[in-house]
């Protein structure tokens, strides 16, 4: 069912008025006018009535919960159970209650976060409040930019004529954000539908009161959701390992119960018949007794699969998530944005990351463009803002733009000579800035006199138009057929005859205008390599000089753009525009015909110069990448930007370094070329590399794992998404890595220290991440800030991190963790991630140890009680062992323990490597833990047994009874596991100490209370151990037994640790030794010098990846707002202006329109800024 929706910019977009219902028949929509209820979007998982049954159903899908429910059923059978029902009911109810409370909280939070959401469907625009149905749309959730769309006025009839019948035929749902094909049939007429008439999910209505639209695709069928990839349930590697271990534990439990059942059968046949006088029974069948004994021991030995394990894991993860939320060192004061752990189930996975996949624009950079330098007619303008060490210079001289009252006060430039050239009316300089003021698709808004606000398709265009504005060529307004600018104080109206729009193939855009004097001119800007191919041969010398300047700009990591123009003959243009109209209305091969016409007219151009724009890196990005590299984390940058730009940013942020042995560029134009380039790169890194990839043994689901190959030196790899490695199949819904090359690419890339993939689509990003996940035994993390990163953040990578930057909140809402700056990633991984992984591994090792030890004592006791399923401990001790006596100490260790503090973690990033190798907890560690538990259980059973055998008290009374033995054994057990916990902890706090000592004190308090006369008097059957505690614990030999047992249990641990530290110390042992030896605070990290590069690589013009909006500008389907009555705004020499306060955007241009360069008072100084301040002020 499809619907018509009404929008209002003041309304919550999650509730939109329904005006019509349309019945869908395979993309054929018929509708009639009616009024229905609102389409409020439900995002909650539960409601008041369904919460309890649904949540219980989900919880009992966990094998452990179902197992304990099965045990509870067994315990109500008298012939089987030797334990009271409460030993299982109490822990089970606690687990279910805690988990239910957590699920309810998560559902409430998720629902609250989705109250304020963006539009949830793809719309066909019908009409709006603006003249001729113009609407302004912000697409930050799609591409980070702002653009405009419109629809013809003829379709007003769709909403206001009755009866109302129409039909829409359109393409099926697909992921192409830049294309749409459809036909609207109404009143015998057919209207062509294209992408300009579609409002995609994720758009936000701006500067428009209301609009009406027809829903074409909703929910998962929208283009944005088609690009988001498949959402998957994320589990940590420890969770997956735990599932395997739990299955093993179940098997081992069945084995133990079978052994004891067989023992019962043998005992009943040989000895049991002799006890019928004392134990009368109706049947004397050893086989049936053995069968019952098997299930009895399933109940008694159930603690080998502790139900409290899952509750404890959830509490630990929740606590470590709070540490991330509360970390003030990950708080970004400028935007008032704290770090946020949006999930509580992946914390320990942060300590095992091997591959980081990062977006570039807005993630590594600020997505704030600054007009930095330019070259005009062979002369370079603009001063270096960095010194030879890479530090930003303090530029005291500021250009005075007072001659231009329309200038943006936030614009900064540091070369007076360019202003002087403008004032001296240099012809080439004027032509340069005139081109910047005319050749664009920017929209200008001027609500008050002189207060200009630019809405641009990309930040680059906003910065360039703002630069022209400040140097005297002010773009003020436009209509479909004209552009109004102010040239050095003079109002000029240019007739806009054609826009030759940008796309990824052309890599340039042009406009054809007629000046007020009647002169026809074509102005063109684009990538320098593309412009050079179309220059007149007379420009050869100027081209050589400009190339030198472009190389210099590229060495500084600037984004460059070449500018050229030509004058047109009137007669030729009239012929050309007629052919252009015919091609533009063609139904077949429209784009091909237009491209031929563009190629024809865009030749013999005259070079004017080039611009250089700085996309500023975020603070601390180079230092963060360097730290992560030292931690053996491989960083891959997946960007939609062009190769040269991404490569230069790679050098700027230390991802690529001059010290590398080589940086391989893969840019072949055929499958064979790409394959050969990959093999050549691999041979250069490892000459003896085999042709076939090396695999580990086959893993789960039949997928083999590519092993890591050791190479000598460090290498980088840059690969273009437009090579044949990334192919676009004939089916438009999918993009795929070419199957025949994926292993070649993966093997080569994994041998490199850094990888940059350029010109990749959102789905290609996800497929690169999926390729690494599929063939590498490694944990991956994806980080980005835009909706085009959602596919790899949400659906592919093990962990997704969203940066709340300039491109909306889609990445943040789809992420597992979020923060405001890329530099916080090193703290998230090297501190929080490593600590969380270390704590979880210690917790699991200790938890299995204490529960296996507890359970194995039952096993040994069975051989001394005739395999009768009698418990060795008191029932109350069995119930409270995991819930009270040992719960808080292990939680204290798991929440507060740390081997070294955060400073030492940054000083020694190699501490992160053990987590990548799963050294702290693995199958091997589990079996070591089981062997240690087996040894400890033997000590805990046989030492007290021998000590109590034929023993009497000091007064001669007998103490060798079952209850005294049970008390001694459980006391020895509690002391042994508490001492073991002390050896596990590296960082003692007051809370840890209180938990350990308090738990022991709680044990004795509860024991003396339970074994008191009063409790026995109240309920004799529940408290049979009357007087046992006071009669046993006052004997010296009992305490000597406890001491001896505890020492013997921990002796192997002490011995093993001493030998390991002496013979083969780990990186943790070495660093902790340094920590103990350190007497002073470590010095701050040395500042890495910024190496200036003189490279032939040049960044090209960074247009948006989407098709431009030139056709829309010239279509005549929109109308500018009524112009204000205004003067040119310029004053002659000697005049002053005092009332003008600029409001437009500066070269620090941002698609959101928020001021980017304003200084914020009382803003927290980052560690990087603080360090620079200290060092720069040093004498």
From TrEMBL:
<dbReference type="GO" id="GO:0007030">
    <property type="term" value="P:Golgi organization"/>
</dbReference>
<feature type="transmembrane region" description="Helical">
    <location>
        <begin position="287"/>
        <end position="311"/>
    </location>
</feature>
<dbReference type="GO" id="GO:0005524">
    <property type="term" value="F:ATP binding"/>
</dbReference>
<dbReference type="InterPro" id="IPR036412">
    <property type="entry name" value="HAD-like_sf"/>
</dbReference>
<dbReference type="InterPro" id="IPR023214">
    <property type="entry name" value="HAD_sf"/>
</dbReference>
<dbReference type="Pfam" id="PF13246">
    <property type="entry name" value="Cation_ATPase"/>
</dbReference>
<keyword id="KW-0547">Nucleotide-binding</keyword>
<feature type="binding site">
    <location>
        <position position="785"/>
    </location>
    <ligand>
        <name>Mg(2+)</name>
    </ligand>
</feature>
<keyword id="KW-0460">Magnesium</keyword>
<feature type="transmembrane region" description="Helical">
    <location>
        <begin position="16"/>
        <end position="38"/>
    </location>
</feature>
<feature type="transmembrane region" description="Helical">
    <location>
        <begin position="244"/>
        <end position="267"/>
    </location>
</feature>
<keyword id="KW-0067">ATP-binding</keyword>
<feature type="transmembrane region" description="Helical">
    <location>
        <begin position="1038"/>
        <end position="1059"/>
    </location>
</feature>
<feature type="binding site">
    <location>
        <position position="359"/>
    </location>
    <ligand>
        <name>Mg(2+)</name>
    </ligand>
</feature>
<feature type="transmembrane region" description="Helical">
    <location>
        <begin position="83"/>
        <end position="101"/>
    </location>
</feature>
<feature type="binding site">
    <location>
        <position position="525"/>
    </location>
    <ligand>
        <name>ATP</name>
    </ligand>
</feature>
<dbReference type="InterPro" id="IPR023299">
    <property type="entry name" value="ATPase_P-typ_cyto_dom_N"/>
</dbReference>
<feature type="region of interest" description="Disordered">
    <location>
        <begin position="1129"/>
        <end position="1161"/>
    </location>
</feature>
<feature type="transmembrane region" description="Helical">
    <location>
        <begin position="847"/>
        <end position="870"/>
    </location>
</feature>
<feature type="binding site">
    <location>
        <position position="360"/>
    </location>
    <ligand>
        <name>ATP</name>
    </ligand>
</feature>
<keyword id="KW-0812">Transmembrane</keyword>
<feature type="transmembrane region" description="Helical">
    <location>
        <begin position="876"/>
        <end position="896"/>
    </location>
</feature>
<comment type="similarity">
    <text>Belongs to the cation transport ATPase (P-type) (TC 3.A.3) family. Type IV subfamily.</text>
</comment>
<dbReference type="InterPro" id="IPR032631">
    <property type="entry name" value="P-type_ATPase_N"/>
</dbReference>
<dbReference type="InterPro" id="IPR032630">
    <property type="entry name" value="P_typ_ATPase_c"/>
</dbReference>
<feature type="binding site">
    <location>
        <position position="361"/>
    </location>
    <ligand>
        <name>ATP</name>
    </ligand>
</feature>
<feature type="binding site">
    <location>
        <position position="361"/>
    </location>
    <ligand>
        <name>Mg(2+)</name>
    </ligand>
</feature>
<dbReference type="GO" id="GO:0005802">
    <property type="term" value="C:trans-Golgi network"/>
</dbReference>
<keyword id="KW-1278">Translocase</keyword>
<feature type="binding site">
    <location>
        <position position="639"/>
    </location>
    <ligand>
        <name>ATP</name>
    </ligand>
</feature>
<keyword id="KW-0479">Metal-binding</keyword>
<feature type="binding site">
    <location>
        <position position="641"/>
    </location>
    <ligand>
        <name>ATP</name>
    </ligand>
</feature>
<dbReference type="InterPro" id="IPR044492">
    <property type="entry name" value="P_typ_ATPase_HD_dom"/>
</dbReference>
<feature type="transmembrane region" description="Helical">
    <location>
        <begin position="995"/>
        <end position="1018"/>
    </location>
</feature>
<feature type="transmembrane region" description="Helical">
    <location>
        <begin position="926"/>
        <end position="945"/>
    </location>
</feature>
<dbReference type="GO" id="GO:0016887">
    <property type="term" value="F:ATP hydrolysis activity"/>
</dbReference>
<dbReference type="InterPro" id="IPR018303">
    <property type="entry name" value="ATPase_P-typ_P_site"/>
</dbReference>
<feature type="binding site">
    <location>
        <position position="359"/>
    </location>
    <ligand>
        <name>ATP</name>
    </ligand>
</feature>
<feature type="transmembrane region" description="Helical">
    <location>
        <begin position="965"/>
        <end position="983"/>
    </location>
</feature>
<dbReference type="GO" id="GO:0045332">
    <property type="term" value="P:phospholipid translocation"/>
</dbReference>
<dbReference type="GO" id="GO:0000287">
    <property type="term" value="F:magnesium ion binding"/>
</dbReference>
<feature type="domain" description="P-type ATPase N-terminal">
    <location>
        <begin position="38"/>
        <end position="89"/>
    </location>
</feature>
């Amino acid at each position: 069912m499809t619907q018509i929706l009404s929008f209002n910019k003041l309304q919550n977009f999650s509730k939109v008025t329904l005006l019509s219902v349309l019945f869908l028949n395979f993309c054929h929509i018929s509708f009639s006018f009616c009024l229905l209820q609102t389409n409020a979007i439900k995002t909650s998982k539960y409601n008041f009535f369904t919460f309890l049954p649904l949540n219980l159903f989900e919880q009992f899908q966990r094998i452990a919960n179902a197992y304990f429910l099965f045990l509870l059923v067994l315990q109500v059978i008298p012939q089987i159970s030797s334990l009271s029902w409460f030993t299982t009911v109490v822990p089970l109810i606690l687990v279910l209650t805690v988990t239910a409370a957590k699920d309810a909280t998560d559902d409430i939070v998720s629902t609250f976060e989705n109250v304020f959401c963006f539009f949830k469907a793809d719309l066909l625009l019908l009409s709006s409040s603006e003249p001729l149905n113009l609407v302004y749309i912000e697409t930050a959730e799609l591409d980070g930019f702002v653009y405009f769309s419109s629809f013809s006025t003829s379709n007003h009839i769709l909403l206001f004529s009755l009866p109302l019948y129409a039909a829409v035929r359109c393409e099926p749902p697909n992921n192409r954000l830049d294309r749409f094909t459809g036909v609207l049939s109404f009143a015998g007429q057919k209207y062509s539908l294209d992408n300009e008439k579609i409002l995609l999910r994720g758009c936000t209505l701006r500067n428009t009161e209301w609009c009406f639209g027809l829903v074409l695709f909703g929910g998962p069928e929208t283009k944005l959701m088609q690009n988001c990839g498949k959402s998957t349930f994320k589990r940590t590697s420890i969770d997956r390992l735990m599932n395997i271990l739990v299955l093993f534990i179940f098997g081992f439990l069945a084995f133990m119960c079978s052994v004891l059942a067989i023992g019962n059968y043998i005992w009943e046949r040989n000895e049991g018949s002799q006890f019928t006088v004392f134990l009368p029974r109706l049947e004397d069948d050893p086989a049936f007794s053995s069968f019952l004994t098997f299930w009895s021991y399933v109940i008694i030995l159930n603690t080998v699969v502790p139900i409290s394990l899952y509750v404890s894991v959830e509490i630990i993860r929740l606590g470590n998530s709070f540490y991330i939320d509360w970390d003030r060192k990950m708080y970004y004061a400028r935007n008032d944005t704290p770090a946020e752990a949006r999930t509580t189930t992946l914390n320990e996975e942060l300590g095992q990351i091997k591959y980081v996949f990062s977006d570039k624009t807005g993630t590594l950079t600020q997505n704030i463009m600054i007009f930095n330098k330019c070259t005009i007619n062979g002369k370079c303008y603009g001063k270096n803002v960095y010194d030879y060490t890479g530090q930003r210079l303090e530029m005291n001289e500021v250009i005075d733009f007072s001659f231009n009252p329309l200038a943006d006060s936030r614009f900064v430039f540091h070369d007076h000579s360019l202003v002087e050239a403008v004032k001296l009316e240099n012809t080439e300089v004027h032509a340069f800035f005139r081109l910047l003021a005319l050749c664009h698709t920017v929209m200008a808004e001027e609500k008050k006199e002189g207060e200009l606000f630019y809405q641009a398709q990309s930040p680059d265009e906003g910065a360039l138009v703002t630069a022209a504005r400040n140097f005297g060529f002010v773009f003020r307004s436009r209509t479909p057929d004209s552009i109004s600018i102010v040239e050095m104080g003079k109002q000029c109206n240019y007739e806009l005859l054609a826009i030759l729009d940008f796309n990824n193939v052309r890599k340039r855009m042009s406009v054809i205008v007629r000046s007020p004097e009647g002169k026809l001119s074509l102005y063109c800007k684009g990538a320098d390599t593309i412009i050079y191919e179309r220059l007149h041969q007379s420009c050869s010398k100027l081209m050589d000089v400009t190339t030198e300047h472009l190389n210099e700009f590229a060495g500084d990591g600037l984004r460059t753009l070449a500018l050229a123009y030509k004058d047109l003959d009137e007669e030729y243009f009239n012929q050309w525009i007629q052919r252009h109209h015919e091609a533009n209305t063609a139904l077949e091969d429209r784009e091909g015909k237009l491209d031929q016409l563009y190629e024809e007219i865009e030749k013999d151009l005259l070079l004017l110069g080039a611009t250089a724009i700085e996309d500023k890196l975020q603070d601390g990005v180079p230092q963060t990448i360097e730290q992560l590299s030292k931690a053996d984390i491989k960083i891959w940058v997946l960007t939609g930007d062009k190769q040269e730009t991404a490569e230069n940013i790679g050098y700027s942020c230390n991802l690529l370094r001059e010290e590398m042995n080589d940086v391989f560029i893969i840019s072949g134009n055929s499958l064979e070329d790409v394959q050969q380039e990959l093999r050549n790169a691999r041979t250069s890194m490892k000459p003896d590399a085999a042709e076939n990839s090396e695999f580990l043994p086959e893993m789960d689901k039949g997928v083999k794992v590519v092993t890591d190959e050791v190479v000598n030196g460090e290498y980088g790899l840059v690969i273009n998404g437009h090579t044949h490695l990334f192919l676009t199949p004939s089916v438009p819904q999918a993009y795929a890595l070419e199957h025949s090359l994926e292993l070649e690419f993966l093997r080569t890339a994994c041998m490199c220290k850094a990888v940059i993939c350029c010109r990749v689509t959102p789905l290609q990003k996800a497929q690169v991440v999926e390729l690494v996940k599929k063939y590498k035994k490694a944990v991956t993390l994806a980080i980005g800030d835009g909706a085009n990163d959602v596919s790899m953040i949400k659906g592919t990578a093990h962990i997704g991190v969203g940066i709340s930057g300039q491109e909306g909140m889609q990445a943040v809402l789809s992420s597992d963790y979020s923060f405001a700056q890329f530099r916080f990633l090193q703290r998230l991984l090297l501190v929080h991630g490593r600590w969380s992984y270390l704590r979880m591994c210690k917790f699991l090792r200790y938890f299995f140890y204490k529960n296996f030890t507890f359970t194995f004592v039952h096993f040994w006791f069975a051989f001394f009680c005739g395999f009768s399923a009698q418990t060795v401990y008191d029932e109350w001790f069995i119930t409270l062992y995991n819930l009270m006596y040992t719960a808080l100490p292990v939680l204290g260790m798991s929440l507060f323990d740390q081997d070294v503090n955060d400073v030492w973690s940054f000083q020694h990033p190699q501490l992160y490597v053990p987590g990548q190798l799963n050294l702290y907890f693995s199958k091997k560690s589990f079996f070591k833990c089981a062997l240690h538990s087996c040894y400890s259980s033997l000590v805990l059973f046989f030492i007290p047994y021998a000590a109590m055998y034929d023993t009497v008290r000091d007064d001669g009374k007998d103490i060798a009874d079952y209850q005294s033995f049970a008390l001694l054994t459980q006391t020895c057990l509690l002391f042994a596991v508490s001492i073991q916990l002390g050896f596990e902890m590296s960082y003692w706090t007051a809370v840890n100490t209180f938990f350990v000592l308090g738990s022991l004190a709680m044990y004795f308090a509860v024991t003396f209370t339970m074994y008191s006369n009063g409790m026995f008097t109240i309920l004799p059957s529940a408290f049979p151990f009357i007087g046992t505690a006071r009669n046993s614990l006052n004997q010296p030999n009992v305490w000597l037994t406890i001491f001896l047992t505890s020492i013997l249990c921990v002796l192997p641990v002490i011995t093993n640790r001493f030998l390991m530290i002496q013979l083969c110390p780990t990186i943790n042992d070495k660093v902790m030794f340094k920590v103990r030896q350190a007497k002073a605070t470590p010095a701050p990290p040395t500042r890495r010098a910024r190496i200036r590069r003189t490279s032939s690589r040049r960044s090209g013009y960074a247009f948006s990846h989407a098709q431009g909006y030139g056709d829309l500008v010239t279509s005549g389907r929109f109308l500018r707002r009524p112009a204000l009555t205004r003067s040119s705004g310029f004053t002659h020499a000697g005049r002053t202006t005092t009332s003008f306060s600029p409001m437009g955007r500066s070269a620090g241009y941002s698609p959101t329109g928020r001021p980017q360069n304003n200084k914020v008072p009382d803003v927290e100084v980052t560690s990087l800024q603080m360090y620079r301040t200290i060092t720069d002020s040093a004498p």
